[in-house]
Amino acid sequence: MNDRHIGPVEVSPPQPGRGRGVVAREDLQPGSLLFVSEPVGSVLEGQLGQQLQPQHLLQHWKTSQQGLSAEDRVKLSLLHRPSSSSSSSSSSSTPPPISFKDFSTSKASSKAKKASAKGFGAAPAKQAGNAAAAAAAAVELTDEQLEAVVACNAYGDDHTDATLTYCRQEQQRSVIGLFPEFSLLNHSCAPNTAAPVLLRDRLLLRTAVVVPAGQELTTSYLSTAGGMPRQQRQQLLQQHYGFVCGCHRCKAEEQAAPDITATLQAMHAFSSSIDAPQLLQLMAAAGDEASTAKLTTLHQQAGKLVQQLEDQLQQHVTEPVVAQWLRASGYDMLALMLRTGEFLAGVKDVAAAKRLAELVRVFAPASEPHLLLLSDSAVRAAEAAAAGGPAPTAPEDTQELRVAQLVRALALRYGEPRDMDLLTTLAGALSASLTPHWLGLIDLDGAMGLQQLMQQLAAAGSAAAGAAGSDGGGSRRKVEMDASQLGQLQ
Ligand SMILES: C[S@@+](CC[C@H](N)C(=O)[O-])C[C@H]1O[C@@H](n2cnc3c(N)ncnc32)[C@H](O)[C@@H]1O
């Protein structure tokens, strides 16, 4: 597989209070590959579901055989920002300007050598005798600085991509690593890049929407917490990354009518009072009256708050995109309402998964939950049609469009496929590799629906792929390198 690759992006000059960021060098269509990033040192893998922390990665680097090379240390030093280091530093919080070229191994290596030639810095005792380490000492971070860099920049996931691991016939694992290009992206609660994908130990990032030249590319640091209200998101970002988010979703939420804020807070308090395992336990015990009564109460109360939010949105919010951002901040409650409703009624709500998918798309576009929910929605619709259910009334609820949306999200995540066979393989792997997800609310068990979905995907052919490319505007874009990488999955 190709090593490091830098696409049509560059590092922006540092701004006070925000530091550096990544910007588009040209107009970008959805699904454009921004870069393939190589990890500093190596990535650490753990058991599926394990919550690997930055300190585990540091420990791994210290104890693993290859450790950190001189070049790795140069790269890490470039990510160091004065404000995140020791309190003794009185320098401004604005980090120095850098470019992606600085992270190429040859550039880092020559920087390490130059530093060595100038005789800067003695090698730390623990690395004495190693010329490269001596060279790196010129840019050596203190332990405290190194910890700050890793805490702020490491990227981890408690499960590797289900579809890719399934296609590769590997076991899903947890993983943590530090990918320098990715770590230069600033945060937004409504990011314009797709959730990153780890393929072996490379991280791939793509755009999720049209991004004009010069616009900053953003990712979400919040994972599932992106579906929480602004107050909770701000607390987490402040606590873990030390900044106050001023993204467009946060601004819109800050300016929202007080009753909307109050409803979102009430929704958050209510949905946090029951977690996914507790909900599943209640459902498992549904035969008993107390559990059914509890589920009914949960459903009714959730329904009331969801309706209250809808009424308030209708009253105060005119822009559909703003309404969607605000709904996304009550994601957990909507999921709770839909799931309990389906369970109590004993029927699947065909539109429910799609509504959830549209909200996940706000804060984690082309993430696995997003794909799973889109897939779930298409499977449910196929099942309903097979059972002779009513035809969809709204044009956006046709199965053709559901499939097109799934194809689009697959293309954002895995790259535009060259042929439908590959797409069908990916979609099949997605469905076949389903395990209960962190949302705890996704359940794809309709084998018949799944089969139909596969057939539809294959039949949709270029029509569906065309719809995938045009959703979000603009023409389709070929990324040959992506296609060849994906080809290796087969
Ligand atoms: C992973 S780094 C991103 C790159 C960083 N800006 C730099 O110059 O190295 C995370 C840090 O960037 C800054 N940052 C990220 N997103 C931000 C945002 N939306 N607003 C302000 N600062 C942000 C914060 O200081 C945060 O701790």
TrEMBL record:
Residues 83-105 have a biased composition (Low complexity). Pfam families: SET. Residues 7-222 form the SET domain. Residues 1-25, 79-105, 465-490 are annotated as: Disordered. This is SET domain-containing protein. It comes from Tetradesmus obliquus (Green alga).
